[in-house]
Amino acid sequence: MTAEGFGAEPAEVASTSGPLPTMEPTACHGTAADKESSASAPVRKDPLVMYVMIRKDLDWPMGALMNQACHASSAVTWEAREDTQAVDYFSEVEGQMTTMTMGAADEVELRKVAEKLFAAGFPARLWVEQPEGVASALATWPRRRSELQKFFKGIKRF
């Protein structure tokens, strides 16, 4: 990603022969200063959250279901890359990313929630697995919990 996105380009490894360089945890997740400022970030009572909803009625292996959640989440990450709230969420400005993973009883429930979100003007991504054409997962763009939780009322965690 560029400096206009979430951060600078990662440094390139000059040689692939010999032992691989050791990466400290801060190398993967920002600098130590970033971690300190993130750790001292005030905990909000109404944090930015992302809801990911997966169908529970699909007779697919667990790995395939996890893939559907990843596809929907990755699509949101890309589509929302210039959205202020999404950038704050993915940059962990508030100290952490909060994700609510919900289980849809079936495709009807999944599409019903998606339609309500879209009708209310909330951006989200309904993932339709191809070539099967099966709606399998839904992910919202990061928004305040108070704004999104009403759309998932009565739906259990996955």
UniProtKB/TrEMBL annotation:
Composition bias type Basic and acidic residues, residue spans: 32-41
MF terms in GO: peptidyl-tRNA hydrolase activity
Entries under SUPFAM superfamilies matching the protein: Peptidyl-tRNA hydrolase II (SSF102462)
Catalytic activity: an N-acyl-L-alpha-aminoacyl-tRNA + H2O = an N-acyl-L-amino acid + a tRNA + H(+)
EC number: 3.1.1.29
Pfam families: PTH2
UniProt keyword annotations, A-Z: Hydrolase
Top-level division of the source organism's lineage: Eukaryota
Enzyme class: hydrolase
Keyword Metal-binding: no
Protein name (record): peptidyl-tRNA hydrolase
Species the sequence originates in: Polarella glacialis
